[in-house]
Design brief:
It is a single chain. Strands 2-1-3-4 form a four-stranded mixed beta sheet. About 40% of the residues lie in helices and about 15% in strands. A hairpin with a 4-residue loop joins strand 3 and strand 4. About 30% of the residues are buried. With about 140 residues, it is of the alpha+beta class.
Length: about 140
Amino acid sequence: MFRFHKGLDTITLFHRPSLPSSLRVLTLLKQAAAHASETATEDQASDHSHQNMVQSNKFELNVTEDPPTSDQLRTILEYVGGTRAKDVVDGAKSEGDAIRTLSGDPSKFNAPVTVDWNNGKAVIGENESEIMKMISQLPK
């Protein structure tokens, strides 16, 4: 008998480089991904507090400047709650309205949005503590 090895969880950042908030989130995620990959042994360094905090939470970072597809948007709204449609798409009053608005005008998408597809979570905007909470809750 054999087992399938589970790959890394994927976190996607819907990114808009022209927005300072999106750049801050990108930097935060890149740093978290880099720190999650760091390893050290007792004889390599004396302070392990940083590695101990994040070393088990490795993830694959996917950054896209494209707005989400309608299926991705539906999923994101499922994760954050349909009442937050207006926070994800400017002028949207509901999930259906968000999908219609975005398909007609992709610039209405409010980046940054960070999504953990494997564990069903999303963070709208640059809420650093919520993003770090999402990363810390990744399976070890």
